[in-house]
Design goal:
By secondary structure, the chain is mainly β. The protein is about 0% helix and about 20% strand. It contains no helices and five strands. The protein is elongated, with a radius of gyration of 20 Å.
Length: about 80
């Protein structure tokens, strides 16, 4: 059923455990895994990692997973030297 979430198997007491989600205004949404994401076209992306980083900026080449494309890039090559005397 769309819009439902299964936080995993119930423990012996029958109470389902909530998933923990961490929000970072400068980065991805972190969700304790495993995680299934239903995409716009209906396909399902699954991660079995202990924590999944979900892209919220849509710049990721591995969308819906974050590849840190949201981070500002720093120049790695040395700056040209001033050649004027």
């Amino acid at each position: 059923m769309p819009g439902t979430s299964d936080p995993g198997p119930c423990p012996a007491d029958g109470v389902q455990r909530a998933r923990r989600v961490s929000l970072d205004p400068q980065g991805p949404v972190l969700i304790k895994g495993p995680v299934e994401i239903v995409l716009d076209d209906g396909t399902i992306a699954r991660s079995d990692r202990f924590t999944a980083a979900i892209c919220t900026c849509r710049r990721s080449r591995t969308y819906p997973w974050c590849d840190t494309s949201h981070r500002p890039r720093e120049r790695t090559s040395p700056q040209p030297e001033d050649r004027n005397p």
